[in-house]
TrEMBL record:
InterPro entries: NnrU_dom. It comes from the Eukaryota. Pfam families: NnrU. One of its GO terms (biological process) is carotene biosynthetic process. It is a multi-pass membrane protein. The chain crosses the membrane at residues 95-115, 138-157, 169-191, 211-231, 339-358. This is NnrU domain-containing protein.
Amino acid sequence: MATSLLISSSSSLLLPSNGRNNVRSLSVRVPSSLSSPNLFKNPSNSLRLLKFYCRIPHADGTSIGKTDTEDGISGESLTGEDSAKFELGEQKISSWIYFVGILGAVLFALDILWIEPSTGYGAAFINSVSGISESKEVIMLVLIFIFALVHSGMASLRDTCEKLMGKRAYRVLFAGLSLPLAVSTVVYFINHRYDGTQLWQVQSIPGLHELVWISNFISFFFLYPSTFNLLEVAAVDKPKLHLWETGIMRITRHPQMVGQVMWCLAHTLWIGNSVAAAASVGLIGHHLFGVWNGDRRLKTRYGEAFDALKSRTSVIPFAAILDGRQKLPKDYYKEFIRLPYLTITALTLGAYFAHPIMQASSFNLHW
């Protein structure tokens, strides 16, 4: 049982403002053990409730200041959101039917308009870029630069464009431009990964394959923390710019950058040539820019809430934990025993065993 309490921003408590309205309100769930009639006579009790049981909605529908001991996370106060949370009871069958339909339509359009040699523009795009230089390393870097320019550029324009065309429409446009460029870059890398100058050859070293495999496997847990909500990725749910704080975010505030660095170093070590090195330089450079750009965008959107999160997280993995700014809950492991992480595990293993299929498909395109 819980008692509902409505607190208006006209009270003496200072609540975050979104700059658009002057009145804010909170819905506070009070456990029955705290619902004594004398509870609110003591101001410290009210503040304690706000700290541990409030959910403050932000202007874009996300929330800050959320803590809920029912989430399975120890009762700490979070500035950001609890990542990878998946409640089966909150899912709508209709939403996932829409997701499957949208995914199928996107893949069909990608195949017809970009991949299929007789109808798509992918081959023409690769041929145009290949005309810039005879160097495979230069072409690899140019492909990554084009993708990075479109991907990061559109991410930077997100707030402005969403106001003009809506969040769902902009997500469709963003994916429609980014996905074909990403496919072209990946296919070109697969087809030319053994071109260029061999810099070292260490594949025969005992244990190296296992080291590379484990590094790649772990990297995928860092690479995709913001795609947990697949319904938002497909624009079934309204897309949001999330301020994640739990799970992998406690280790590093920019897990995608860390995962990409791990993936690049492992592949470059294994392949050992100039094309792989060029691809790694381009991808790591893009993600280092993403560290600055991501922090800038979150600061613009969340203001002081992001400053609070930034103060107890770090870009360098484990740095905030080691210097005491990040206190891991006793039940930290529960933040990983969730369906999205199990899904990533299955997909990562599937991608590894699907390498021969990926390589054969890429070779058949002759990009």
